[in-house]
Amino acid sequence: MSAVLNFFARDENVPVKCSLVVVPATDMRYLHPRNKRLNEKNCPYESARWFQDVPWSPMGREQWFLKYWLGDDEAVQDEILNNDWRMTPILAPDFKNLPPTHFVTAEFDLARDETKVFEEILRHAGNQVTSKQYAGMPHAFAMYNHPTRGLAKSWEYLEDTARLLREAHGCADL
Questions:
Q1: What are the Alpha/beta hydrolase fold-3 domain coordinates in residue numbering (predicted)?
Q2: Domains in the chain, CATH or no CATH each
């Protein structure tokens, strides 16, 4: 959602100091419900093909969400997934003049490689882009920050994010 909101902010002249885009889905086309198994013909992203069956964020769950949002009509699904940049931001018509954006990816995430492609598109369009990939982490790792049973990388993410936002808002010394 934050990737899409960047376009709306730009188009409405809303100043954004820093956009934090965390484990985003930026190309939904390969998640069409008719794709039962991902392969090189129906999905250009190696990470999606590798991690389509992982328990923490399987492709089937992503497809369930899409079906919930888009309904059962395959023609409607095709139209939206292949033509509506708000669902598939990698299809946006103009990538220029977007806010400074920091991407967070997880090593073992279905969307890891599509995020890297999206990052490069934004860089190529002249935008300020930074990123960090958290090694060994699954898709929703940032939420696993329980004080005693949480993931160390989740705490690292929280510290990194707090520092990034303090710097973006001129409060780095807090």
A1: 3-142
A2: 2-24+44-168 (3.40.50.1820)
